[in-house]
Specification:
Length: 147
């Protein structure tokens, strides 16, 4: 009888050891991507959280396979306007579109008659980064007849 109790206690001890090991592994396991994204939403600002999520989605893709949203491209253009050398340095750390891809994006802006809101948005991005001396200029617009 005593031997059977010792045997059952030994089995219980083994089960508890296994359960303890499982629980300790769960505590040391890093969070998966979904958990990480949820934590980003909680602890980071909306813009930074969005940037981190985009980087998570792009990190495992080859440079040629990365696809960027128009909003992210506009953000990248604003970084590029801060300085091309700075942008190239950031490209080494983060997944950012190439300068050539940004040029193609800007070249696709549709121009039509009247005032172009996209053009003014890009001008605003550029002017926001200028010093007061650089802002002294004349913006001249003219009309043109098409025949």
């Amino acid at each position: 009888m005593l031997r059977s109790k010792i045997s059952s206690v030994g089995k219980d001890k083994q089960q508890l050891s296994k359960e303890t090991e499982k629980l300790s592994k769960k505590q040391t396991m890093p969070p998966n991507q979904e958990d990480f994204k949820n934590l980003c939403d909680i602890f980071l600002t909306k813009k930074i959280s969005s940037f981190v999520k985009v980087q998570l989605n792009l990190i495992n893709r080859s440079a040629q396979g990365r696809r960027y949203s128009d909003e992210f491209k506009k953000f990248a253009i604003s970084l590029y306007f801060l300085g091309s050398k700075c942008y190239r340095q950031l490209q080494k750390t983060f997944c950012l579109p190439s300068p050539k891809a940004l040029q193609r994006f800007v070249a696709k802006i549709k121009f039509s008659t009247g005032l172009n809101e996209d053009l003014f948005a890009f001008l605003k991005l550029k002017v926001d980064k200028m010093s007061p001396e650089e802002k002294i200029c004349i913006l001249c617009m003219d009309e043109m007849s098409l025949k």
